């Protein structure tokens, strides 16, 4: 089951609440995130504002798409190579 998706602005607000002195337990209950997710966000995005966080997310998405495209092309190339070798 997939969990909720938080927008970069929401992640930034949650991390700023922690920086402003809110307790982790309060943040976890209030926003409905797990402690592990909160600490993972804190490790990855600490100190970023929402604009830079949004930019990072878009770059990660673009990177994911490019990796997928590369995997498909590599598979096609390998298949073409095998076909050529069988004909010779």
UniProtKB/TrEMBL annotation:
Gene3D superfamilies: Homeodomain-like. Pfam families: HTH_Tnp_1. One of its GO terms (biological process) is DNA transposition. InterPro entries: Homeodomain-like_sf, Transposase_8, Transposase_8_domain. GO terms for molecular function: DNA binding; transposase activity. PANTHER family: LOW CALCIUM RESPONSE LOCUS PROTEIN S, TRANSPOSASE. This is Putative transposase. It comes from Lutibacter agarilyticus.
């Amino acid at each position: 089951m997939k969990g909720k998706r938080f927008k970069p602005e929401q992640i930034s607000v949650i991390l700023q609440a922690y920086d402003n002195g809110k307790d982790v337990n309060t943040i976890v209950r209030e926003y409905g995130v797990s402690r592990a997710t909160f600490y993972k966000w804190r490790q990855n995005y600490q100190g970023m504002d929402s604009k830079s966080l949004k930019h990072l997310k878009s770059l990660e998405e673009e990177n994911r798409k490019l990796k997928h495209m590369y995997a498909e092309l590599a598979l096609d190339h390998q298949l073409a190579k095998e076909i050529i070798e069988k004909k010779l």
